[in-house]
Amino acid sequence: MMDVHSLYDMLVKVQEPKGYYFNRDIERVFDILDSLLVNRERYGYMSCPCRLASGDRDRDSDIICPCIYRAQDVEEYGSCYCNLYVSRDWNEERIPHEYVPERRPFNR
Questions:
Q1: DSSP notation for 71-101
Q2: Which of 29, 33, 70, 76 is 20 to 30 A distant from 14 in Cα terms?
Q3: Cα gap 3→19, rounded to integer Å
Q4: Which pLDDT band, with edges at 50, 70 and 90, does 108 fall under?
Q5: Residue 2's pLDDT band (boundaries 50, 70, 90)?
Q6: Chain-centre distance of CA 66, in angstroms?
């Protein structure tokens, strides 16, 4: 079974070249990564821990990390909804840390 540190190392290698960085608050990052691993054990996929998963992979396909909302959130706010993935500017505080509104439709 993968641990938080292994998941972190793997995702850094995959996501940073795409311009997505982990929040510099490493404690928050590890908490979220741990929750992703719990959700993988619980549901069979790493659903965003900041949203309610249904347990139906097809229904939750939009919130499997990285969720489909991440790109637009990071582009517009510098951070995804749960602040796991951020832009370099966000991490370096060159842009304000604004609240990222929920994009997922309520009735999903």
A1: HHHHHHHSB-TTSSEE-HHHHTTSS------
A2: 76
A3: 24
A4: low
A5: confident
A6: 5
How many residues are present in the chain?
108
According to DSSP, the residues that pair with 86 across neighbouring strands are 21, 79
Tokens of 27: 């404690």
Under 8 Å CB-to-CB from 42, ≥6 apart: which residues? Answer: 55
Q: How far, in Å, are 57, 69, 107 from residue 42 at the CA level?
A: 12, 22, 22
Is the separation of the CB atoms in 39 and 80 below 8 Å?
A: no
